[in-house]
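[Meeting: bench + compute handoff]

Bench side (C.D.) handed over the final construct sequence. Compute side (W.E.) agreed to return the predicted structure before the next meeting so the bench team could plan truncations. Sequence as handed over:
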Amino acid sequence: MNTPNIQRTAAGEIDYYGLYLLRHLLEHRFAEAADAAFVRGRATRAGAAFEQARREGLTAAAAQERAMEVLMQGLHTSRYDLLREVVENEFFNEVPPAHREMFIERLLPSLDALFAPYDLADDDFALSPACDRLYTEITGAVAIHIEAHSL
């Protein structure tokens, strides 16, 4: 996966919000990790939210919280994380730890249709009944895949 170049501020400093966001996107396998404009735009908006909050008199901690809300909006639940959670919790014995990453990376693209009806960008998705339904559907898809590919 191509990743955006690390952005530097006018003073040559590395952009904190851009780096934080890029690390999160890469770690959780969000497609947006390859979108430099997305990372740059979201980081810029987070920085502006921090500055605005400080001008409004909020403490640095409260301003940081507001900036992080802007930065991370819609990026709390990833397809990769959900599949990884199912494989680790439900198929621990069937998919040995040494093979999990490869298994997940290979299986994930075939589950696009399964994920399509769900709004993972909803910041409350992980706490919703829809997330429980999706977890069950992923579990079924993984079981079918394992059964179909077992020797």
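W.E. noted at the follow-up: Residues 71 and 103 are 30 Å apart (CA to CA). C.D. will use this when planning the next construct.
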